[in-house]
Write a structure and sequence with these properties.
The chain is an all-alpha fold. It contains 3 helices and no strands.
């Protein structure tokens, strides 16, 4: 799974698939892009930290303190958008 630091492979559908597989494997159920797994009671603080670690390793990004807004992580769709925003600079010309 995954292609860290590979800008060509980081598209919305690819990131959605990878995040969905991780969440499904760890939460035991498939989620729609807008399902808020925190309000659904599927996520505790330990898993929230595992999710941050997964995103950092999978996509070669560093999640800063200011990035730790729950809104960035509360659903598959929001998490996908966060990853794409954090990696967007990789495809830009130098």
């Amino acid at each position: 799974m995954g292609t860290p630091n590979n800008a060509d492979a980081l598209t919305g559908p690819v990131v959605t698939k990878e995040l969905s597989e991780f969440l499904t494997a760890n939460l035991g159920q498939e989620l729609a892009p807008d399902d808020d797994y925190f309000t659904m009671g599927l996520v505790n603080s330990l898993f929230a930290m595992e999710l941050v670690t997964f995103v950092e390793r999978q996509y070669g990004i560093e999640v800063q303190v200011e990035d730790l807004d729950l809104d960035n992580f509360r659903s598959l769709g929001r998490l996908r958008d966060f990853v794409l925003a954090k990696t967007a600079h990789r495809g830009a010309p130098a």
